[in-house]
Amino acid sequence: MEYKSTRNSGLRVSAAQAITQGISTEGGLFVPESLPRLELEDLECLAGKTYNERAIEVLSLFLTDFSDEQLCHCVNLAYTEEKFGDEEITRLVQLGENGLAVLELWHGPTCAFKDMALQLLPHLLTTSAQIIRSGSERVILVATSGDTGKAALEGFRDVPGTRMMVFYPADGVSPTQKRQMVTQEGENVSVCAVEGNFDDTQAAVKSIFTDPVLRERMAEKGLQFSSANSINWGRLVPQIVYYVSAYCDLLADGKIKLGDPVNVCVPTGNFGNILAAYYAKKMGVPFGKLICASNKNRILTDFIRTGVYDCNRDFYATNSPSMDILVSSNLERLLYDLCGEEDFQITSWYRDLKETGRFEIPPAVREKLTAEFWGGSCGEAETLSVIQRVFSEYSYLSDTHTAVALGAYENYREETGDQTLTLVVSTANPYKFTGSVLSSLGEPGTEDEAEQMALLHRISELEIPASLLEIQDKPVRFNRLISREEMKEDVGRMLRL
Ligand SMILES: *Cc1c(COP(=O)(O)O)cnc(C)c1O
């Protein structure tokens, strides 16, 4: 299996190369040359296996330059009972009798679904570097809307041959997300706040990556940039696994029969998570509608409904900060697929986006888009009322991001009347956003995070993750704040270029 770029269909690189490089030199994203097939019999067979066995089988279809032994090694280091609390790794929770199952992806070390990919990525990267015999030291740059940063730091801390720099928008993360990052341990990591929002930070990181002068100076020093953001194929492929696995779990639990359709509803920001569901569907997992849930930053909802992607709008810092994004990177991979892999078309749309802040897809492409996706959004007040309602109805506590998905799903059912069993993807532990969750339950919060968590525990009886309690007493290691213009220089200084 080889990979090409969304902006150069003629390019061919191996999986190991795509993963070490992160992004193609002309700015495109790596995609597999074709998607492997999973037949219904394959799914039936996988239903009898453990999460790790499923992961190894699915990954082996994509990472064909990895040996079985290398894949087993990577997967078994990433997904352990110790890190995920259970060998099941993910959890399925049925809510009521009306065809709603919540897929919890946040039982990893940092309490957000990013762990599903970022516990594996460091091992994929280290192995990829061995495969292509790269002697370079890898420098991982991360732009984070909150959860990627911590999950990447935890995944990459003290990994030999790797340095990591995380940039987060100063006013764009929750207090717990910030504390998780600024107290991070590890000799090879640094964390820095940037003025502005996530889109600014992400754009600056992308331009650092593709800066030819910087790349050359790095090469002279034996350094190579790589990415832990979902532009990296190594982030996406582990996410395909949990969709395949969730379908297998529904089968194994007798909730569906082989071949029954299942909808998927995903709280979406950078479009990585829902894109993985789309790929799983194209591979043969019988998914129905893919419901793309946005918060008040509803650019994707509008795009799915009108075919116009328009960034010329206000950016809102909301109570679901990990989805506060206007430029959804992975949409590029979907559009590449929907437009028949016309690289010039992608290049021109993304040039328009850069120059005018918008682009428009033709009706034929839009038709394909709406055949697969339904877009809906859930505002801040609605998000809080969903948390309250779901808690009182099902005694189920959800975080703000998951609540956006639950809210969009309700709207979807109302609008379409579709009763198909739906997997609503749950992306964070409620304790990561304790303040908002408490206010949704009508509890006037205190400022103190530890007290807030204790209060939420008394109300919900949900266990407080030890990793979130621990950080309350850890010293702050990183407190720098820079402007986005200073980022490039900052990277150069830290690498002594
Ligand atoms: C990153 C994140 C999202 C958005 O996922 P994308 O893959 O960027 O669409 C949603 N919820 C939480 C909690 C996240 O951390």
Specify the number of helices. 23
Note the gap between the termini. 36 Å
Structural class: alpha/beta
Rg calculated over all Cα atoms: 21 Å
What is the level-2 CATH architecture name of one domain? 3-Layer(aba) Sandwich
Describe this structure as you would to a colleague.
There is one protein chain. By secondary structure, this protein is of the alpha/beta class. It has a domain at 87-111 and 234-463: 3-Layer(aba) Sandwich (Rossmann fold). The protein contains 23 helices and 16 strands. Helix 9 (175-182) links the parallel strand 7 and strand 8. Helix 18 packs across helix 20 (434-440). The radius of gyration is 21 Å and the shape is globular. It starts with a strand and ends with a helix. The structure holds pyridoxal-5'-phosphate. Pyridoxal-5'-phosphate is lined by residues 112, 114, 147, 230, 267-273, 322-323, 401, 427-428.
Keywords:
497 residues; alpha/beta; Rossmann fold; 5-stranded parallel beta sheet; binds pyridoxal-5'-phosphate
Quick structural gist:
This protein is α/β, with parallel strands linked by helices and 497 residues long. It has helices spanning 15-21, 40-47, 51-62, 68-78, 81-84, 114-118, 121-131, 147-156, 175-182, 198-209, 212-220, 233-252, 272-283, 299-306, 331-338, 343-356, 363-372, 380-394, 400-416, 434-440, 449-460, 466-470, 487-494; strands at residues 3-5, 8-13, 30-32, 91-94, 100-104, 137-143, 162-169, 189-194, 223-227, 262-267, 287-294, 308-310, 358-360, 373-377, 422-426, 481-482. Helix 12 (233-252) crosses helix 13.
